[in-house]
Amino acid sequence: xxxxxxxxxSDQIKGRVLTFDLTTGKRVAVRGGVGFGDGExxxxxxxxxxxxxxxxxxxxxxxxxxxxITRPGTFVMKWGGLGPGPGEFNGGRWASRRMRxxxxx
Length: 105
What we know:
The chain has one domain (6-85): Thrombin, subunit H. The chain is built from 1 helix and 7 strands. It has one helix spanning 95-98, and strands at 6-11, 16-21, 27-32, 44-49, 56-60, 65-69, 75-80. The longest helix is centred in the last third of the chain and has 4 residues, at 95-98. The two termini are 15 Å apart. Residues 92-105 have low confidence and may be disordered.
């Protein structure tokens, strides 16, 4: 496996995922923005990177879902959502406070 060249950080207030170059420390990409649509986030919290593809898996607290986006930032898929049903996260009145997310893999 190649050495990582990027560092990812979530900006929960502005609903973004930031990419920084590990060598220079400069920001090289911004993904997302506050919203409910594909590729948008409301309090992005956990970020995991697929070492084979470089795809990002981003846990979104308020939207109660996980989104998969490519390294360049193209939306691929999402799963979860607010509710008590199969494939949904928590549900109920206090769902956004109870969601637990893995912050590393």
